[in-house]
Each structure stands twice: as structure tokens, then as C-alpha cells.
Specification:
YeaO-like; alpha/beta; DUF488 family protein; 35% helix; five-stranded mixed sheet; 124 residues; 5 strands; globular; 4 helices
Length: 124
């Protein structure tokens, strides 16, 4: 969990049971997670525009030794104007409600959700 004054952002696997403490639940994966029925996901939003590009996702392949470089490349991708709109939208949610970034990734600490949480709580 990341907390920055008025912002509380949590990263979780979509396969975990929803909690009342989740606040707004947003899936930040580009593709829909296997084995999850949309009606069982308890999502408020699926924000594909903020997910890493397919090329970056394939290169990273969830290999922890590539995470540092993945984080750098993904943060660069987030500078794209289309993605900046999605980031601003998530910041607004986080400032008013709790925000849970959901991903299907097994290693949440080495995921786009973790990078996104850091970007969202970064004070300029």
C-alpha cells in the first residue's frame, strides 16, 4: 500500500476477493485476466489505456531482473498524452477515494500496478 497525505493506493491481484477497504477498483492490465468472469470481478473500471504497450509487456515477460529497466521504460510510456489523461484520471480517483490497482500478475511488487502506484503518489 502506498499512502501520500490524501492518497491511499493499493495494488492487488484481481484473483483476490474484493474488500470493502479497496475503494475504487481499477484493472490496469491490457488484456482481460484468464478465468475471471466480468460479473465476478467487482470492478469499477478497466483502464486499458494506462497499461504498458504490448511490446514492452512481451519484453519484460515478468522477469524480476528486468524490472528496473521495465519501470524506466513504462514511466516513459506514461508520458504519452493519451496515457497522461488516464494517469490524471487515476490521480483524481485516488485523491477522493481509496484506489486499488488490480492486475492478474502473480508478482504484484514487480508489476505495472506497482510502477503506476509510485507514479500516482509522486509529488511534483
Amino acid at each position: 500500500m502506498t499512502k501520500n497525505s490524501t492518497k491511499t493506493i493499493t495494488c492487488r491481484r484481481i484473483y483476490e476477493e474484493a474488500s470493502p477497504r479497496d475503494g475504487v477498483r481499477v484493472l490496469v492490465d491490457r488484456i482481460w485476466p484468464r478465468g475471471v468472469r466480468k460479473e465476478d470481478a467487482h470492478l469499477d473500471e478497466w483502464l486499458q489505456d494506462v497499461a504498458p504497450s504490448t511490446d514492452l509487456r512481451h519484453w519484460f515477460a515478468h522477469r524480476p531482473e528486468r524490472f528496473s529497466e521495465f519501470r524506466r521504460r513504462y514511466q516513459n510510456e506514461l508520458q504519452n498524452p493519451e496515457r497522461q489523461q488516464a494517469v490524471a484520471h487515476l490521480r483524481e480517483i485516488a485523491e477522493h477515494d481509496g484506489l486499488t490497482l488490480l492486475t492478474a500478475t502473480r508478482d504484484v511488487e514487480h508489476s505495472q500496478a506497482a510502477v503506476l502506484a509510485l507514479v500516482l503518489t509522486d509529488v511534483d
